[in-house]
Amino acid sequence: xxxxxxxxxxxxxxxxxxxxxxxxxxxxxxxxxxxxxxxxxxxxxxxxxxxxxxxxxxxxxxxxxxxxxxxxxxxxxxxxxxxxxxxxxxxxxxxxxxxxxxxxxxxxxxxxxxxxxxxxxxxxxxxxxxxxxxxxxxxxxxxxxxxxxxxxxxxxxxx
Length: 159
Fold this sequence. Notes:
30% strand, mainly beta
């Protein structure tokens, strides 16, 4: 038995774990309040994979689900306390050799506070209230197609 290689990432309401097992069969996923279990047969030689994780925080096991594809099994663990960031997947700080962070899907969502979004809205309002075209200086014929720079030459046609 070997643990399956996995990647994980955190979102506001859920934690996602992707087990990278091609051609998985007999997939079993166990969602417990503070534990998570995964097992399957994988590959053409039907290697048995089994993983168990003591989770960093509690999950809602009734709202958690998984989806199998030909290349992997993606598990969505619904957080019991949405909006609380998980700095790691495991309860203990131990490094698991088969587990890594999925940086392609990672997003620092906890930095997207409502206060910062409010500042963006204020900035947008300020830009919209700055005035229209009547405040722009005259650019002395910049829109005239006939005024050409001295170094402008006619470009040859493309073939």
